[in-house]
Amino acid sequence: MRMAVTLADVARLAGVSPATVSRVINDSVKKVAPELRERVLAAVAQLHYVPNAHAQNVARPRKSAVGVIVHDVSDPYFAEITRGLQRQAAAHDRLLVICNSYREPERELAYVALLRAQQVHALILAGSGYHDDEFTARLNGELNAYQQGGGRVAVIGRHELVGSAVLPANEAGAYELGCRVLALGHRRVGVIAGPRTLTTTTDRLTGIRRAAAETKVALEHVVYADFTRDGGAAAAAELLAAAPGLTAILALNDSMAVGTLATLRERGISVPGQISVTGFDDMPIARDMTPTLTTVRLPLVGMGERAMALALGDDAVPASEPAPAELIWRESCAAPA
Question: CA of 302: how far to CAs of 70, 131, 168, 325, in Å?
């Protein structure tokens, strides 16, 4: 069996010290004379030497990895954001370390501590903020310590956290959607909201409530559910049982809207003939549904790109960037019969 080539082997062939070889392959801030650098690189090529990644991670003052914490990368919302993160990371030769928190605050806190220990160059929290003051204070403690050690932090969504932020226009988009639906004449409207603990749920529901208040429509039927297809399906069944005369159901993300459409289809309820349905986010599947889904588009891939750009930037002061929302009108919503 052929023995692995070591750093010492390269040093012997190049006629330099192992420390010099280490400085060359780790791109150290300690400069190496051009002649010695060329000898080291020639020896590396001749011996087909592969550097030890763990040793490089210890040696380099600036790490190549970026830690990303999402709620669930299998969720289409986070899958699109991750595409943007990866696109920008690749442009800067950065490696992503992606962690799923599954909307569990303690798991998120543990991942931040773990990524700090791994000395990643930057941390990006891509999920919604939580209505939990104690958790937020603990998380800020971890993030502050990380920043003081030279790390950079960026978040996507409304958080009470340190670092730069990309802020999707959740409330404004929901308000525009609510105004448009109510302007069609809908008065018996049900809402399928996300988990109560998330700031994203609060912001989107606030926008719908503001539109209802301005139209003097009582928003009496709100059901909270997981931001999933199954959560939407179960919530739709609950709404139909509680308020059989509904003419519109506004689901506050597209996955829940897909579940809503499935429940209505199973019961033989036509959309939008009997009940109109809307979503939020504009997932790729929204345009392929039958009927096609009226929704609010967020620039998810762009949000990921901007968060990565903020995390990799060198601005001394944290920045906030808005991500606009756009109403996308399709076949699933019409005036009540």
Answer: 16, 26, 11, 12
Closest Cα partner for 227 from 272, 184, 258?
258
Separation between Cα atoms, residue 302 and residue 304, nearest integer Å: 5
**Three-class DSSP category at 303:** helix
Judge whether 265 and 237 are in contact, CB under 8 Å.
no
Whether the pLDDT of residue 145 is over 70: the answer is yes
DSSP state of 185: T
| Adjacent-strand bridge partners of 277 | 249
The backbone torsions φ and ψ at residue 201, rounded to the nearest 5 degrees and listed phi first, read -60, -50
Residues in Cβ contact with 176 at an 8 Å cutoff, skipping those fewer than 6 apart = 207, 211, 296, 325, 327
Torsion sign over Cα 267, 273, 275, 280: positive
Instruction: Count CB-CB contacts under 10 A for residue 304.
Output: 27
In the predicted model, is pLDDT for residue 189 greater than 90? yes
In DSSP notation, 182-209 reads: HHTT--SEEEEE--TTBHHHHHHHHHHH
State how far the Cα of 63 lies from the Cα of 181, in Å rounded to an integer.
49
% of the chain at pLDDT higher than 90: 74
The span from the CA of 167 to the CA of 154, in Å, is 11
The C-alpha atoms of residue 312 and residue 170 are separated, in whole angstroms, by: 25
DSSP 326: E
pTM above 0.85, yes or no: no
CA atoms within 13 A on the CB side of 80: 16
Token couple for 173: 């988009």
Residue 52, helix vs strand vs coil = coil
**CA–CA separation, 151 and 112 (whole Å):** 12
Q: How confident is the model at residue 62 (pLDDT cuts 50, 70, 90)?
A: very low
